[in-house]
Every structure is written in structure tokens, then in C-alpha cells.
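New to this. Please check this fold:
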Amino acid sequence: MPSSNRPDTRFSAINNKTITAAHVYELLTFRGMSCVYSSWIWDRIIPLKHRVFLWLLFWGRLNTRDNMMKKHWTSIVTQKDCVIYPAPESASHLVLRCYPASVIWDVFGLNDLASSSLDLLSFVEQAEQRWPATSKFHILFAAPAVTTWHARNDRVFNSKRWSSAYIKQYVTQLLHLWQSRSREQDDNDAMDAWTHCLA
């Protein structure tokens, strides 16, 4: 505890004295592991609520059925399997293998990679290599990830199943919304190309 007799020798770890949500989440770690994909998450094109969602997604902290079973929330879920596909409902399953995800990844020619990837991190790394001209592949990953989560929640809480046309339309709307946040013409051009693929 500082006293008036001694000078305060504490210092700020932040050079410019500005604390942002990105900085705080960079400080947070799980079991001492740093977030190697923080640059994919904390892009200003992606709205803050979706950045937080992506952070939880990559860390496997979403309330998917498998996580709820681990937490012993048996009054809410009685099994950890997805209601659409006979596999445990995990973050990787929802974003890579579940029906809404397969609709989206098929449009971009990434469905085989998505269904064979071990986890989200390996999928994004390999998909970036397949699309080397796209510097903002993480945006293309983020919009489908958010879409699959919203489709899952609509199915769980409202008993609604999204058609493939609606799934594509939802991703397109997200990309258009995020495009308005972009400052670079290259980013806008990339998002235009992706929305044309979804049409």
C-alpha cells in the first residue's frame, strides 16, 4: 500500500494511457496461454459485440451443449449432442460442421476443409493459405461464425430452422453492415466479392 512517506513507484503497462476492450482481453489468458489469434478478432470492421463473441468462440467458452454438460447444467440440457447432426455440440462443430456452417463454407469451396479440420484455429490458418490474396479472411470467417451462432440460438430458443437461402442472406447482411465500417477500398472490394458469391 502506498504511503505518503514513499514515492509511488507503480507504473502503467499502457504507454498511451488509453485502455480499450481489445487491450483488456489481450491481458486475459487461460492457463497462461496467450491469444495468438487476437489480430483476427480485434479488427475495427467487426462490431464490438461480435469481437467479444469471437473471443469466447476461439477460447471454447460459449454456452454450447458440451460446455453446459461440463458445467453440470443438466436441468437445461440432457445430452451434449447437436439436435441437427449426430455429434457433440461444440463451438468447432457449430462453426465448421453443422448444417448452417456447411451451407456457407460450401459457397466458398471450404466445406471439405471445414469438416476435416480439428478445430477453429487450424481451419482459419489453412483457409487463409487457400485464399492468399485475401488479407481479411478473418472477416470472411467472422460473418459465418456469427451467423451460425444466431441460427443455433434461433433453433434452440424459438424452434426455428433457417433455410439455406436465409443463412446466405444473413451472412450477406452482416458483410454489408460491416462494410460500412471499413476505411480501406481493398476491404470493401473483398467484402463485395464475398457477397456476390453468396447471391
Summary: The chain has a mean pLDDT of 81.
